[in-house]
């Protein structure tokens, strides 16, 4: 099969080849639509889709997409980019004629090489089934096709995450909590010593005990600051509600016992400082994976101000130093708007 020169513009081509997944829409002879995500490669003229060895219930040639193409070769393929930054949204839609390229042909060999080059997973597959090849006839596109900004999932997650302070009364599955803790475990730490420990609190009774212990200290502090009785009660009630309403609390404690010990106070202080920095990294890992797992989270600094009260309330080892509480759950209603950030130019103070 000799393909015509591509009708895609350079921008559309660049966008398309960078995408890892696209959606292939086919229709049966009677017009019944069918759409499916596909891995694909574009050689500049034809788009190739393997009928590979990913687990399937039927032989490749019995797949609905293949039967549709045999009945009706008109197909559409759309590759799109979603980003939390909507200035980066984009898609390319190609409509054209699909055909099956049979194995043991030059075209098949070339398509398989291209697909294997793009997806290393294909290297270990035999790739002996026909390949779907689409000859583009019409192309539509929209959005920031040529944006160099990455829409990497991790960037999306860190832009999407925000502090949530009100939760629905909905249980968080244990395995999701484990994923969050597992993410925290992989944070960078000084000498790789992981100077942090986590306490997970879900029981109403324990939350109440913790809220009361921390509330007592806070009340003293607010009164010391000269706040009116009304303000003190309001703020305490708000904080208590946050703790009781969050389905899961994760207390992040500093644990300094495994760190290096120095004869001088200054280096010792820096060692502790590194541990605190690392606790922040563990917290951020947890927040990002919570968000990526469909959860919402918040950060409460209250334990830092009354560490002994917290260890006593939870009957924890006195060597643990409570630093922060992460609340986990599903956001209730509209969470407060994500706070804006200072421009980068203000934060980067030196470049040379
Ligand atoms: C060390 C630290 C302590 C924080 N303590 C609290 C807190 O006690 N209560 C609270 O509502 N938010 C707390 N936050 C969350 C910040 O207010 C929030 O991250 C910030 O306003 C930016 O909003 P965003 O997280 O929605 O982007 C804390 C954040 C950090 C990093």
Summarize this entry quickly.
By secondary structure, the chain is α+β, with helices and mostly antiparallel strands. The chain contains 11 helices and 11 strands.
The outline comes out as elongated
User: How much is the average pLDDT?
Assistant: 91
The helix/strand order is: HEEEEHEEHEHHEHHEHEHHEH
Oligomeric status of the shown chains?
Answer: single chain
Strand tally: 11
The radius of gyration is 28 Å
Beta-strand content: 15-25%
The structure class reads: alpha+beta
Low-confidence stretches: none
Bound molecules: flavin mononucleotide
Biggest sheet details: 7 strands, antiparallel
Order of neighbouring strands in the sheet with most strands: 2-1-5-6-7-4-3
Tally of alpha and pi helices: 11
What's the end-to-end separation, in Å? 55 Å
**Share of helix, binned:** 25-40%
Protein topology:
Blueprint: H1 10-18, E1 22-27, E2 33-38, E3 41-42, E4 47-50, H2 64-71, E5 74-81, E6 90-101, H3 106-118, E7 131-143, H4 153-160, H5 174-185, E8 196-201, H6 204-224, H7 229-245, E9 248-255, H8 265-292, E10 296-300, H9 302-305, H10 307-314, E11 320-329, H11 344-347
Antiparallel strand pairs: 1-2, 1-5, 3-4, 4-7, 5-6, 6-7, 8-9, 9-11, 10-11
The chain binds flavin mononucleotide.
């Amino acid at each position: 099969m000799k393909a015509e020169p591509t009708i895609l513009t350079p921008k559309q081509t660049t966008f398309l080849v960078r995408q890892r997944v696209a959606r292939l829409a086919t229709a049966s002879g009677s017009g019944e639509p069918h759409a499916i995500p596909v891995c694909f490669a574009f050689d500049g003229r034809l788009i190739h889709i393997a009928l590979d060895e990913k687990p399937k219930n039927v032989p490749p040639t019995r797949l609905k997409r293949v039967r549709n193409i045999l009945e009706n070769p008109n197909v559409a393929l759309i590759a799109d980019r979603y980003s939390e930054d909507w200035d980066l949204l984009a898609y390319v839609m190609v409509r054209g004629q699909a055909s099956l390229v049979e194995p043991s042909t030059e075209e098949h060999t070339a398509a398989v090489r291209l697909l294997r080059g793009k997806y290393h997973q294909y290297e270990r597959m035999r790739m002996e089934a026909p390949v779907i090849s689409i000859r583009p006839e019409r192309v539509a596109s929209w959005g920031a096709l040529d944006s160099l900004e990455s829409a990497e999932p991790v960037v999306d997650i860190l832009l999407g995450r925000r502090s949530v302070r009100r939760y629905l009364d909905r249980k968080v599955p244990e395995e999701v909590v484990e994923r969050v803790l597992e993410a925290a475990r992989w944070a960078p730490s000084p000498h790789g010593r992981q100077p942090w420990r986590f306490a997970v609190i879900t029981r109403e009774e324990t939350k109440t005990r913790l809220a009361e212990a921390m509330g007592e200290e806070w009340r003293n502090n607010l009164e010391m600051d000269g706040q009116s009785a009304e303000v003190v009660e309001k703020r305490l009630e708000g904080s208590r509600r946050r703790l009781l309403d969050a389905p899961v609390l994760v207390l992040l404690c500093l644990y300094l016992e495994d760190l290096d010990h120095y004869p001088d106070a200054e280096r010792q202080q820096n060692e502790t400082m590194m541990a605190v920095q690392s606790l922040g990294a563990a917290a951020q890992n947890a927040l990002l994976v919570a968000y990526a797992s469909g959860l919402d989270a918040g950060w409460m600094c209250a334990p830092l101000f009354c560490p002994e009260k917290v260890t006593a309330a939870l009957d924890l080892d006195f060597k643990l130093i409570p630093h922060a509480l992460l609340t986990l759950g599903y956001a209730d209603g509209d969470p407060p708007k994500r706070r804006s950030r200072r421009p980068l130019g203000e934060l980067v103070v030196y470049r040379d």
